[in-house]
């Protein structure tokens, strides 16, 4: 593994800023940083908060061990004072934000970090890495889940992304409603159901397809999925049912015109008496190809490349900005108008029916609470102490409820505006 | 960290295939797997092999520890026989391939893994995760380096990708010719020069810009980079030179119309006597925006999002395919014609001037070696023993030489065909 703690997953400039701020006394100024996105990926109608639970676990381990500080000293990156500060580093501030599975829109303050300048600024890179990656995957995955209309989707993209990112991607996809993952590390770390049976290599390994199928059924039983497209698909299905009988759980098709092949395979399976045998399709599945198959007799999808790379939006565009110093709002001049200084309070307003109308972001004000308003922020860390966090399953259910609550246009796959407007209410 | 060894960074189906193959005796068949891409990302003219050094290190640690095997047993993923096999797993086969920094084209056999079916198939996901990620980053980074025409580029995209992927991305970008990275973990793990000075937050933290600049110069000296676009850029530059004097090393501009701002900043710096002060630009830099700035007085670029997400191609499209079983070539029926069975030998043919003409891939034949041919494959692991690997700096130089060797059209940023054709020579 590249590093022993998450503390060096940090940009060099955070430590030079701390060095200078320790020297001039500003390191201890009381600061508020906020994580938000200036815009959603082009055409996307909502973002999905993901990674917070994973982030809070990493923050527990955010310490600079002696070897790491030694590297920073010997590379001339920090001076002796900063090295001593890093050695005793413990985050003692507060972190609050939107829970995982919550939706976000441009300007939503999805994470607020408060404490001294130095203790907050050093967390910038790790916070953004986790949230930008996981939120990008979850947003893409949520669109696929919508497109699948209740049919299960298996996440099988590990091989298309960094080996550690793959584990986080499986988690984010499950959060977004995927049924299972192929990734064993994600299964172990997060309790996500894992699934998988065989690849083309298994068929090619054997002398012929019936032999390969017989071997798989002997080892795994009839409650398995046979991959039928290594040679001829029709013959593959015939071989599968001949070997396993009509009680075979499923066949998988990984190539070709899946629309035509799904219909043909269903007819053939039915004609062979395998009316309960499921059809799983995989191979370059994204939200659009899933939607295209809505009317076809497909029982389950396998999604890989598109989900782990965010289906065209591989990062969520989240930034970590200083918004308050010693109680004074601060803002960079060149920001767009949506950016205002000061700690924000966020509320989602709903119709009495439960449909979301707008997100209201109060800058330094107490919100005018209404009956159908929902406060969006929760405490994750208070005075350095980690608070109880929702489970992954709870976050998954939270997202499901959130997606039900937005206006129906918000679930369209086509490009459009954010599902609900964001209203910034500046300081009175 | 999610997992203690890389062994669970594996897809479920690899273990079910092993279970079945152990049961029917095919697990010990002698197999050859190859890693190749069927096509390059749309319009790209070459791929860059990256990640091999990182992969070989991970393969050294590819063991299933007792807790991992315990998880697999308790989750019902493997049976007792397979659990025992995993517990004693050691890769005893051979791995050869293109060295890091080598170019590849559709069909290039960049990694060849031989051994028993079971010992090779279990490595599939990890091999592809590492090579697909790192090669995607390196290819994007190499295009940026070409576009920068000798001006240095700093990799600063950690915050836009998964926290571990960020470390690998910094490594891949450095391999491709980037000058440095902001990522401290990459600096420590791979000896890559790290760099960074300050963010807008540092200026906002202070009571005014001159105070912030004075603090930074007091801590880091005049050989630093002042970020001048927090408020008004012209005033920022005046403040920077007023505080640091005309010997200031550099200013950085992170927003706005960088073309106009670079010209204006150069004129202003020169008028203030700071003729040696460098101009660094950052903010949504990709190969195209870098190329656009070629004629402007820019001294250095900072690239973030685009490089760590592969600039539109976040994964390299590499696959891991069984091509030979007990000496017999195998191939899936539905593959395109470029895919042929059997272990391949790859040669790049050059003109006497050194310009590459074509890549020749021999299937099961001994190549007809010519004077200007270069054999592309090297041994990385022989009989389970890791061989000496090139250093990252050597791989970086290798890529530089490879890019010099391809026809000049191959370096164009515009969409086009692969820089050289790939000729598959099947078995005689």
Please identify the top-level CATH class of the largest domain in chain A. Alpha Beta
Shape of chain A: globular
Number of helices of chain A: 15
- Strand arrangement across the biggest beta sheet of chain A: 13-12-1-5-3-17-18
Function (chains A, B): Catalyzes the first step in the biosynthesis of NAD from nicotinic acid, the ATP-dependent synthesis of beta-nicotinate D-ribonucleotide from nicotinate and 5-phospho-D-ribose 1-phosphate.
Pfam family, one (chains A, B): NAPRTase_N
InterPro entries (chains A, B): Aldolase_TIM, NAPRTase_N, Nic_PRibTrfase-Fam, Nic_PRibTrfase_pncB, Nicotinate_pribotase-like_C
Pathway (chains A, B): Cofactor biosynthesis; NAD(+) biosynthesis; nicotinate D-ribonucleotide from nicotinate: step 1/1
Salient structural properties:
37% helix; alpha/beta; nicotinate phosphoribosyltransferase; 428 residues; 2 domains; six-stranded parallel sheet; homodimer; 19% strand; globular
What does this structure look like?
- 2 copies of one chain form a homodimer.
- Chain A has 428 residues and is α/β, with parallel strands linked by helices.
- The first copy, chain A, has 2 domains: 244 residues, nicotinate phosphoribosyltransferase; 102 residues, Alpha-Beta Barrel (TIM Barrel), CATH 3.20.20.70.
- Chain A contains 15 helices and 19 strands.
- In chain A, the strands form 4 sheets. The first copy, chain A, has a 7-stranded antiparallel β-sheet. In chain A, strands 7-6-11-10-9-8 form a 6-stranded parallel β-sheet.
- In chain A, helix 13 links the parallel strand 10 and strand 11.
- In chain A, helix 3 runs antiparallel to helix 4, helix 6 packs across helix 7 and helix 7 crosses helix 8.
- The longest helix of chain A is centred in the first third of the chain and has 25 residues.
- In chain A, 57% of the residues are buried.
- The interface between A and B is large, with 98 and 98 residues.
